[in-house]
UniProtKB/TrEMBL annotation, chain A:
InterPro entries reported in the protein's UniProt record: Adaptor_comp_med_subunit, AP2_Mu_C_sf, AP2_Mu_N, Clathrin_mu, Clathrin_mu_CS, Longin-like_dom_sf, MHD, Mu2_C
Keyword Membrane: yes
Record organism: Brassica napus
Sequence similarity: Belongs to the adaptor complexes medium subunit family.
Record's GO cellular component terms: clathrin adaptor complex; clathrin-coated pit; plasma membrane
Domain of life, source organism: Eukaryota
Pfam families in alphabetical order: Adap_comp_sub
A single BP term in Gene Ontology: intracellular protein transport
Annotated MHD domain residues: 177-437
Keyword set, alphabetical order: Cell membrane, Coated pit, Endocytosis, Membrane, Protein transport, Transport
Name of the protein in question: (rape) hypothetical protein
The organism's taxonomic lineage, starting at the top: Eukaryota, Viridiplantae, Streptophyta, Embryophyta, Tracheophyta
UniProtKB/TrEMBL annotation, chain B:
Gene encoding the protein: BnaC09g36320D
Full protein name: AP-2 complex subunit alpha
Membrane-related topology note: Peripheral membrane protein
GO cellular component term, pick one: AP-2 adaptor complex
Bias (Pro residues) ranges: 981-993
SUBUNIT field: Adaptor protein complex 2 (AP-2) is a heterotetramer composed of two large adaptins (alpha-type and beta-type subunits), a medium adaptin (mu-type subunit) and a small adaptin (sigma-type subunit).
Amino acid sequence: MPVAASAIYFLNLRGDVLINRTYRDDVGGNMVDAFRTHIMQTKELGNCPVRQIGGCSFVYMRISNVYIVIVASSNANVACGFKFVVEAVALFKSYFGGAFDEDAIRNNFVLIYELLDEIMDFGYPQNLSPEILKLYITQEGVRSPFSSKPKDKPIPNATLQVTGAVGWRREGLSYKKNEVFLDIVESVNLLMSSKGNVLRCDVTGKVLMKCFLSGMPDLKLGLNDKIGLEKESEMKSRPAKSGKTIELDDVTFHQCVNLTRFNSEKTVSFVPPDGEFELMKYRITEGVNLPFRVLPTINELGRTRMEVNVKVKSVFGAKMFALGVVVKIPVPKQTAKTNFQVTTGRAKYNPSIDCLVWKIRKFPGQTESTLSAEIELISTMGEKKSWTRPPIQMEFQVPMFTASGLRVWFLKVWEKSGYNTVEWVRYITKAGSYEIRC
Amino acid sequence: MTGMRGLSVFISDIRNCQNKEAERLRVDKELGNIRTCFKNEKVLTPYKKKKYVWKMLYIHMLGYDVDFGHMEAVSLISAPKYPEKQVGYIVTSCLLNENHDFLKLAINTVRNDIIGRNETFQCLALTLVGNIGGRDFAESLAPDVQKLLISSSCRPLVRKKAALCLLRLFRKNPDAINVDGWADRMTQLLDERDLGVLTSSTSLLVALVSNNHEAYSSCLPKCVKILERLARNQDVPQEYTYYGIPSPWLQVKAMRALQYFPTIEDPSTRKSLFEVLQRILMGTDVVKNVNKNNASHAVLFEALSLVIHLDAEKEMMSQCVALLGKFISVREPNIRYLGLENMTRMLMVTDVQDVIKKHQSQIITSLKDPDISIRRRALDLLYGMCDVSNAKDIVEELLQYLSTAEFSMREELSLKAAILAEKFAPDLSWYVDVILQLIDKAGDFVSDDIWFRVVQFVTNNEDLQPYAASKAREYLDKIAIHETMVKVSAYILGEYGHLLARQPGCSASELFSILHEKLPTVSTPTIPILLSTYAKLLMHTQPRDPELEKKVWAVFKKYESCIDVEIQQRAVEYFELSKKGAAFMDVLAEMPKFPERQSSLIKKAEVVEDTADQSAIKLRAQQQPSNALVLADPQPVSGAPPPLKIPSEPQSVARTISQPNGTSSNIDPQAPSPDLLSDLLGPLAIEAPPGVVSTEQHGPTGTEGVPDEVDGSAIVPVGEQTNNVEVIGNIAERFHALCLKDSGVLYEDPYIQIGIKAEWRGHHGRLVLFLGNKSTNPLTSVQALILPPAHLKLELSPVPDTIPPRAQVQSPLEVMNIRPSRDVAVLDFSYKLGTIVVGAKLRIPAVLNKFLQPLQLTSEEFFPQWRALSGPPLKLQEVVRGVRPLALPEMANLFNSFRVTICPGLDPNPNNLVASTTFYSETTGAMLCLARIETDPADRTQLRMTVGSGDPTLTFELKEFIKEQLIAIPMGSRALVPAAAAPPPPVAQPPSPAALADDPGAMLAGLL
């Protein structure tokens, strides 16, 4: 087991320590000063997440307005450290009920200290599962007094669960209505050249589940991915179904998935934890369906005028629609005056990010929409550097559409008592970094 | 600024930003806003413009780039109302610098404001001009600013600003401002009653005077008057009195200005200035109030530098020293530091050293000060004030201090003690004592150079050897001695141990055993020295001592297989040699004397880090770059008379002359020598070698520069005595060599060496004369006068009256070429050593070819130019006969050496040479010169020469110059030929490695 941290610090953006916990004595108390002077106050802050100063390694990440810094002096496992931070933040979020930021930390000092004591011991990560920790760290985060009071429940035996065969699920749960929610969330990353060639494109997706099931159910999930389908056709000794099969890369599963059965039978079967969890993650690089096409034309007319024409085409099914579409069209720094004509939505110039921001609330499929703008620039004293033309960025959400084409084939629930369950399946595709060069 | 709500909202937004990121977003948003507003000219009211320009300034001050909107800022300058104008001026001076083109737009408006009647606008405009101060402003606005400064209708406020504005413009571009005839105006300005205007004008004066002090000599009495007025506290308003001191700033500035004038001739001015200085010196004391102290000490120290500069009477100097003496005994460390530092500066003035010596004990106390910077200053001062008389005390004091001193200072301290001991040793045995003590006390901090040096001295001075040997023997008796001490004593005992043989406990075998005891404790580098010592001991033992032999051989045997090659080689070789008998004696015979060489210690002392800018080390270093060979000199060290004996009569005569003249003993070499004395001195003149000096007497006889101060009856025996010394080397040859290169020795005799180093750029030249005193006595009444020919403008910085022993002074000489001519400038140089007066007239190598710049032309460039020069007087041709026969490549080299570049391959005839160069002078500017030499392969002694240039005089002079060079070759042949063939060897050549290898002493030193 690798050491992950000698100490952990939570700093705000100015570099003040909000909370810290030292797990080992091999780092001095003033190490965070070194972090402040050598990393926070220089330009290197955003460049490199791991830095070494005077024999100490600083592993840090920024989450909302908090820097979480791990200090380690021995040969620590950096990946383990990062995973620990991510998991710890997820844990805190589940305790605070949502947000994790400076104020949340300030409001929950005691709770955080208690959790920090529990989730790491002498630099080694311990159990970070919120379900289990919530059993015995029962102190509630501060909630508004108007919210409903939590009911008094008998304190369940935590030890049994932690040491049992199914460590992530409690025995004896019972729901009136047995429901399973399954979401497939994909984000599309794209970099396209100005001529429309795809330079880089991939989809990262995850399968999120929310289970409200009684007893100890056994679930089985079937997707239209290549391995699963091939296996199925093999087993049933009949030709594979026509239609697209998807090749998933880098699949990772939640710990509840029975990997031996996956390896032998190629089916995803599991006993779900109670409540919300992330069942699996995957990546797709081939055969991505791009939801939008963007055709920009930008003309620089002399030193003080520019014409921008952007056409956005939605290429998903006509019955679907995209929500919250934002197109950010970069303009030079010295932009002084802008004039827009848009077919749908609204556009305005945002000087603090040097972009024209064009927002369309609802964008139906198989349609197109254009923006044309005239831009006037102010003359400057500086060097006559040509404008670098950063790429156009896009944000959107398309419900019931998957860029990968992934579909849920079946979701079977099996429980001893044989109750009926309701299964809900949703798909959603979001923009990751969706960039088009212009 | 009131009522600009947008601005204050913006500022408070910025202040409320939590972090840098939020601030940047807010600023970017605001910049976008400003850009939009500036683009919409229709809605841009003056109020909005003003508001946004203020915001721009605020953003700029926050450190963000604001690269637009300058036009708007500049346009606000021409607004009619004050608030707009003010922001226009402020933002323009913050955002723009002198190179921006936008400023050209503003010049006219600014000028209107300056010549306008509104004095607030005038002030704004003057501030802008002063802050930006570009060439454009200087050229177009300086006359108006000057007018404002002298106008009587302006209020003092405006004139004050005008003076400072002009000062800035002048500092930035002195050539862009016409200050001809400003002397009178400055004189008037200095009569001003208002102290504010006066302070600003004095600042301006300081800048003007530093540029050209001659033109402003009329201001000198005025400065003195200002000082008098302030010193008497007459007419000084309350607001200019700072803690009871009348305007210290003005006092300091006036005194600073006075320091730019070389001297004060008018006796009454001088007298009143000295009265003022006296008053300052008397009136300054240390008080409780820090601010008052600061002000009064600023005045005092400026007064001190003025006193030093003016070479005041001894009485006043000693008063200064007494005052400083009071300072260094004060408790306050700052004051003590200043006192010590200024005392070090006072060392520059020769005749106060005795007075400073009175404070020696106090200075030595300062060595124990808790503050290290004070200790350093004290050490510095002690080092600087040390001379023959007090060397013993000071060195002993330093040795004592060494054992308690801080580690960081020890190395410097031991180095300094070693240098002082070496330089001022009253006798050599004392020197040896000191160094041995030094090694004993601070062995770790004694660098190798120090003990190398003592070995060199002992080797070179025979009478010292027994003493050194016995001393070394004594130190060996100590139980724990430093390794360096082992090295020194081993070396000395090996060489001279046999001299002690009679003394008890000093037989060879006893020496061997006591040295051998140390062997196990020493490190590898010391073992070879010990081995050599053993071999030497063995050699000196006559008759042979079999027992000792056995022991030593055992040691050699042991080291024959040592892993260190050096030790192994020595052991093997000594072992074999020791069996050789006579050969052994030969090889290990006593070391020959070392060649005299510069001490490396001094060089090291210069390297030692020192923070104070005026440290004694640096002063010394400036004065004497090479010395510390005092002891090895053939002359006795201290106070010995110079070798030349002179009849007593002229001595007294010379004294009677120089004394009534005071410090400046201008001796006119042209004065008629009276019969009586010339008779008396006759024999001397005959004895003198017929040096070149006498031939040099026939140089130009214009001595305009020397006023005949001596009465008609004055008796000046200089002319005759001049030739009493033997000139080393041929002056004419040295001159010719220097014509072709830029540095070398111009003149040398047994007492002085005059070196020269020159840099030439266009028609300007800068020569530095290095006057080095080679003797151990000071050279007094040193004078150097330049007798310039009509075509050169020469300015020689004053040469100090006295050159201390073994010191070197530098004297820069500025040369400007006005028009082409072959005449040469002459340096009339004289000095006195004891009672001998030596003088020489030396040609300064500022000859025609120094103003040439090599230029290589191609045939496309050459021929059109050549054809454009059509016949006389621009192009002259001459057949020269009697030329020294030279092969063509040699001749080409010769031409190149005087910076006339041969362009090979231009002329179709291989026997011809074509050359080009550029000539610089003030009247001609840069002028292209072309030349063609047609030689006759059958008869090398004649050639035809064609020279052309754009100026008839230049053509003629250049032709004559080349002719002279071609014919004059035999005369300077020895200097010329190598110069033509290869880069000329420097005259003061360091010993080449080959020479070193031949010299056994040098080899040993290398080994050590």
